[in-house]
Amino acid sequence: MRARIVFLVRVPAGRREDFLAAYEKIRYQVSGGVPGHLGDQVCQSATDPAQWLITSEWRGLADFLAWEAGEEHRELVRPLRECVTEARSLRFLIRAETAAGAPVGEETGTAAGAPFGEETGRSAPPEGEAGAPVGEGADPVTEFAADPVTEAVARGSA
Predict the structure, then answer these.
(1) What is the arrangement of strands in the sheet containing 51-58, beginning at the earlier edge strand?
(2) Where are the alpha helices (DSSP H) in 13-104?
(3) What three-state secondary structure class fits 22?
(4) Burial grade of 143 (CB within 10 A; 0-12, 13-18, 19 or more)
(5) What confidence tens digit (pLDDT) does each residue in 47-75 have?
(6) pTM for the model
(7) H helix intervals, the chain
């Protein structure tokens, strides 16, 4: 079952550029080769500029936990962790998902008539339609669901 890792952090105004630079380095390394990593996002609060959210999506929680436990992870997230003053990490299992434009009553990630939480696959609208996967050359920040950083920062193990 796919998993989403959510990392809520506070980044002082004077560290924002360092934080974003560290995230840039991490996201390409993770998306390029960490087994099970499906994507990630970094978001800044619309009402509190010091509050940030990093999310990542994984094929399964075990994939994230394996990556997070490794020495490579700790080294990779160290510069990002140094920018953060507070951190909270949460882990979720994805039970159901609906893509933009899906007809009423149709869910993506679950089969029609299947019990809630019984994942059977993931579908999305065709490329170019609302909710479709973003193609090559797109801004990966807007399509990222990454959180190799979150758990390590929250634990101080990064």
Answers:
(1) 37-44, 51-58, 3-10, 86-93
(2) 16-31, 61-68, 71-81
(3) helix
(4) middle
(5) 999 999 999 999 999 999 999 998 889 89
(6) 0.65
(7) 16-31, 61-68, 71-81, 140-143, 148-155
